[in-house]
């Protein structure tokens, strides 16, 4: 790998725009071809972003210059499409989740390992300077020994803005598998592997109605919990409580708080690459009424970009023969945590998480996505 890495896309839906905008600005990668079931959409996106070729998914797999496939297909075929890319001799970067079941996703990772190929999995927001600055503060002991975390993502649901939201309430989705990856990936990157989980969930209604677009008024079934609360026990001893809900009239998203023996730290929204990092120290003492606590702001360090950062880290890691941050193993463990939470909500019992992941490596503060290193 002594020149820019050739990249091909399979799936060019709405999220492809931000990927293409960012990847086209990184000197270490070069987007060569876009493929989609809708070849006209692939052509339109290729023209819009200056990509030299377009066609079908097979055209991407057959392209001799493509070394990494970006899998932006629907979650139900993530594992299948990624497996096809591995079989074609390509590394894979896939949108979350890695898959929808343990069996096919574990088989994918085994296939990649046998082929000597890498798998990376969104979200890569954990590589952004927001989460990484917070991670460095925890590592240097700013809040002492981390004890527990609280996270929350709640609002009234995607039907208020999405013209076709039914798939977000189907098996393999819901707020847990749709938004949970951002929060659990962040917690695992800070605390390490989850040992066991307990969860409770509910469906506010059996069906919901689309509120915007040409299909407004049409109803669709709700197949999974639309609100779920998850209790996590980490192998290192910390605990966490996480709420994900599509039922809350009160919109409150991006809440990640880490509480330790010497302070409490606010971490930025894990669905973003940047944000506020601040902490408070415990009181020494106070009288009848505690005084207002002073927030100590932490300057964010690092270059802010967006989606595609994890892919860039992966291709540099291949050249440098080091682990990449948003790995397939991390994606699998987060999927295992979420599936275990679903099982706990159904059974009413704690569920042991069978998988684990090694220490998630940090991103150096001087990581420059706009540098040419290959």
Folded structure, characterized:
InterPro entries: Gfo/Idh/MocA-like_OxRdtase_N, Gfo/Idh/MocA_oxidrdct_glycsds, GFO_IDH_MocA-like_dom, NAD(P)-bd_dom_sf. Residues 131-266 form the GFO/IDH/MocA-like oxidoreductase domain. This protein is of the alpha/beta class and 374 residues long. The chain has 2 domains: 5-121, NAD(P)-binding Rossmann-like Domain (Rossmann fold, 3-Layer(aba) Sandwich), CATH 3.40.50; 126-297, Dihydrodipicolinate Reductase, domain 2. Helices cover 29% and strands 23% of the residues. The chain is built from 9 helices and 17 strands. It has a 9-stranded mixed beta sheet. Strands 3-2-1-4-5-6 form a 6-stranded parallel beta sheet, sandwiched between helices. β5 (91-94), α5 and β6 form a beta-alpha-beta unit. α5 runs antiparallel to α9 (328-347). The protein is globular, with a radius of gyration of 21 Å. The mean pLDDT is 96.
């Amino acid at each position: 790998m002594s020149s820019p890495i050739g990249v091909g896309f399979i799936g060019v839906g709405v999220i492809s725009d931000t990927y293409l905008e960012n990847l086209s600005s990184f000197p270490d990668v070069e987007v060569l071809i876009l493929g989609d079931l809708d070849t006209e959409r692939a052509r339109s996106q290729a023209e819009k972003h200056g990509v030299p070729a377009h066609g079908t998914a097979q055209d991407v797999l057959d392209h001799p210059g493509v070394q990494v496939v970006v899998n932006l297909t629907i979650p139900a075929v993530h594992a299948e499409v990624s497996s096809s890319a591995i079989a074609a001799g390509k590394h894979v970067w896939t949108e979350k989740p890695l898959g929808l079941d343990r069996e096919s996703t574990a088989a994918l990772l085994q296939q990649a390992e046998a082929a000597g190929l890498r798998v990376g999995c969104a979200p890569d927001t954990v590589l952004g300077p927001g989460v990484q600055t917070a991670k460095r503060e925890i590592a240097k002991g700013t809040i002492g020994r981390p004890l527990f975390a609280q996270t929350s993502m709640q609002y009234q649901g995607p039907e208020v803005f999405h013209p076709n939201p039914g798939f977000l309430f189907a098996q393999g989705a819901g707020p847990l598998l749709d938004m949970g990856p951002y929060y659990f990936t962040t917690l695992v990157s800070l605390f390490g592997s989850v040992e066991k989980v307990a969860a409770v969930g509910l469906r506010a209604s059996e069906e919901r109605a689309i509120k915007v677009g040409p299909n407004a008024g049409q109803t669709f079934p709700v197949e999974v919990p639309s609100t779920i609360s998850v209790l996590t026990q980490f192998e290192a001893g910390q605990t966490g409580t996480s709420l994900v809900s599509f039922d809350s009239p009160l919109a409150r998203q991006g809440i990640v708080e880490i509480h330790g023996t010497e302070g409490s730290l606010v971490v930025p929204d894990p669905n973003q690459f940047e944000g506020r990092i601040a902490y408070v120290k415990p009181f020494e003492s106070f009288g009848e009424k505690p005084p207002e606590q002073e927030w100590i702001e932490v300057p964010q360090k690092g270059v802010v970009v967006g989606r595609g950062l994890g892919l860039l880290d992966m291709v540099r890691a291949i050249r440098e023969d080091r682990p990449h941050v948003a790995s397939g193993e991390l994606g699998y463990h987060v999927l295992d945590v979420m599936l275990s939470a679903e099982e706990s909500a159904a059974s009413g019992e704690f569920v042991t998480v069978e998988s684990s992941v090694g220490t998630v490596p940090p991103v150096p503060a001087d990581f420059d996505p706009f540098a040419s290193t290959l």
